[in-house]
From TrEMBL:
<dbReference type="InterPro" id="IPR012309">
    <property type="entry name" value="DNA_ligase_ATP-dep_C"/>
</dbReference>
<protein>
    <recommendedName>
        <fullName>DNA ligase (ATP)</fullName>
        <ecNumber>6.5.1.1</ecNumber>
    </recommendedName>
</protein>
<dbReference type="GO" id="GO:0003910">
    <property type="term" value="F:DNA ligase (ATP) activity"/>
</dbReference>
<feature type="domain" description="ATP-dependent DNA ligase family profile">
    <location>
        <begin position="139"/>
        <end position="231"/>
    </location>
</feature>
<dbReference type="InterPro" id="IPR050191">
    <property type="entry name" value="ATP-dep_DNA_ligase"/>
</dbReference>
<dbReference type="Pfam" id="PF04679">
    <property type="entry name" value="DNA_ligase_A_C"/>
</dbReference>
<dbReference type="InterPro" id="IPR012310">
    <property type="entry name" value="DNA_ligase_ATP-dep_cent"/>
</dbReference>
<keyword id="KW-0436">Ligase</keyword>
<dbReference type="InterPro" id="IPR012340">
    <property type="entry name" value="NA-bd_OB-fold"/>
</dbReference>
<comment type="similarity">
    <text>Belongs to the ATP-dependent DNA ligase family.</text>
</comment>
<dbReference type="GO" id="GO:0006310">
    <property type="term" value="P:DNA recombination"/>
</dbReference>
<dbReference type="Pfam" id="PF01068">
    <property type="entry name" value="DNA_ligase_A_M"/>
</dbReference>
<dbReference type="InterPro" id="IPR014146">
    <property type="entry name" value="LigD_ligase_dom"/>
</dbReference>
<dbReference type="GO" id="GO:0006281">
    <property type="term" value="P:DNA repair"/>
</dbReference>
<feature type="region of interest" description="Disordered">
    <location>
        <begin position="1"/>
        <end position="40"/>
    </location>
</feature>
<dbReference type="GO" id="GO:0005524">
    <property type="term" value="F:ATP binding"/>
</dbReference>
Length: 350
C-alpha cells in the first residue's frame, strides 16, 4: 500500500539536458569521533518556505519538488518513534507505515523533517487523497498509504544539527535515507537543474511547484527566507465564513464564501463552487451546520442569495490562478479542509 507508481520521476528527471538527480555521496563513516551529546529537543518549530513568484538565481540555491501534504517531524528515540504535526500534535498512530519504517532506519536518535503525502496514479502527491486516507478533516482513521518525503535532518545520533549548514545536514540525510527508495520513508531528492528549468518541468508534470533552499543556511524556525517556494498554481488557506444553498449541488453547497486575514480583521475574497466530491460535500455541510452564525464575520456585498453564515472556524485549502483587480480569487477550486493539528494558516492580505 505504500508503493505508488514512480512514473513521473524519470520524465521529470530526464527532460532537462543536464542530469537532474543528486550526485552520489559517500556513506558516512560509522567510526565517528566521540563528541559530547546534545540534548534532544522535544519539539522543533519547522522552518517555513517564503512564497516567491520566480525561482532565485545563483549556485547557493538547492532545488527540490514541492510536496502537497501534511508537514511532519519524525522523532526517533530510544523509547520509540514519535510523529508530530506542524502544530505539535502526536500523530504517530495516524501514520503507522511511516512509524514502522522509521524504526528500521540505521540510527539511534534522530529528528527528520518532511512531508506526509499520498500519491495519485501518476505518482504526484495529492492533498485530497491524503485527507481521504485519514478519514477527512476531524477523522481519526490511520493512513497506511501515507509516505514521508524526508527533506532535512535536525538531530542525528545525539548531535543537534540545527546550527549546521544545510549542505552538511543534507549529506547526513542522504546517508540515512538513500535516494530512490520505495518504502514509507523516502528521500526528497535534490534536483540539480536551473530553477527556471525545473519549475517549467514541474508545472508540465502537474506538480504543485518547487522549493529553493540556501545551501549555507542554518535551520531557523519560521519564515525567514532561507527556504523559498515557487508554485505552478497558487494554493493557500482561506477561512470559510458561509455558504450558498443549492438543491442541485453535492451537499446542497452551491458555493463557499471565503475570507482572508488583514491584521485582526477578516476580508471577503470571493467564493468557490468547484472541486467538491459528493461524500466530502456531505461531511462539510454537516460540519458547517453545527457552527451556524446569525450574522456574517465579514463585510459582504457579493449579491448572492440563499446564504447561510457560519462562525469562522474552518480553513479551506483553495487552488486559484490569480487575484482580480477588486481583490477576489480568480478561478478558485476547493481542495479540502486544513486540520487544526496542521497549524492551519489563513492567507494574509498585504
Amino acid at each position: 500500500m505504500t508503493k505508488p507508481p514512480r512514473k513521473p520521476a524519470q520524465p521529470l528527471l530526464g527532460d532537462a539536458d543536464a542530469p537532474l538527480r543528486s550526485r552520489p555521496r559517500k556513506k558516512r563513516d560509522p567510526a565517528q569521533p566521540n563528541l559530547p551529546f546534545d540534548p534532544m529537543p522535544a519539539r522543533v518549530d519547522p522552518c517555513l518556505a517564503l512564497l516567491k513568484p520566480k525561482p532565485p538565481k545563483g549556485r547557493q540555491w538547492a532545488f527540490e519538488v514541492k510536496w502537497d501534504g501534511y508537514r511532519i517531524a519524525v522523532h526517533i528515540e530510544p523509547s520509540g518513534v514519535r510523529i508530530l504535526t506542524r502544530g505539535g500534535h502526536d500523530w504517530t498512530d495516524r501514520f503507522p507505515a511511516i512509524a514502522t519504517e522509521a524504526r528500521r532506519l540505521p540510527v539511534s536518535t534522530a529528528i527528520l523533517d518532511g512531508e506526509a503525502v499520498v500519491f495519485d496514479e501518476l505518482g504526484r502527491s495529492d492533498f485530497g487523497r491524503l485527507q481521504q486516507s485519514l478519514g477527512g478533516r476531524g477523522g481519526n482513521r490511520s493512513s497506511r498509504e501515507a509516505v514521508m518525503m524526508a527533506f532535512d535532518l535536525l538531530y542525528f545520533d545525539g548531535h543537534d544539527l540545527m546550527e549546521t549548514e544545510f549542505t552538511a545536514r543534507r549529506h547526513l540525510l542522504e546517508g540515512l535515507v538513500p535516494a530512490g527508495g520505495e518504502e514509507a520513508v523516502r528521500l526528497s531528492e535534490e534536483i540539480e537543474a536551473d530553477g527556471d528549468t525545473l519549475l517549467r518541468i514541474a508545472c508540465d508534470h502537474g506538480l504543485e511547484g518547487i522549493i529553493a533552499k540556501d545551501r549555507n543556511s542554518t535551520y531557523r524556525s519560521g519564515c525567514g527566507g532561507d527556504w523559498l517556494k515557487i508554485k505552478c498554481i497558487q494554493s493557500d488557506g482561506f477561512t470559510i465564513v458561509g455558504y450558498q444553498m443549492s438543491g442541485a449541488a453535492f451537499g446542497n453547497i452551491g458555493a463557499l464564501l471565503l475570507a482572508a486575514r488583514k491584521g485582526d480583521e477578516l476580508i471577503y475574497v470571493g467564493s468557490v463552487g468547484t472541486g467538491f466530491k459528493a461524500d466530502e460535500a456531505m461531511k462539510l455541510r454537516a460540519t458547517m451546520d453545527k457552527i451556524k452564525a446569525t450574522k456574517p464575520a465579514v463585510v459582504y456585498s457579493g449579491g448572492r442569495k440563499n446564504l447561510t453564515w457560519i462562525k469562522p472556524k474552518l480553513v479551506a485549502e483553495i487552488e486559484y490562478r490569480a487575484w482580480t483587480h477588486d481583490g477576489k480569487l480568480r478561478h478558485p477550486s476547493y481542495k479540502g479542509l486544513r486540520e487544526l493539528q496542521d497549524n492551519a494558516t489563513v492567507y494574509e492580505l498585504e
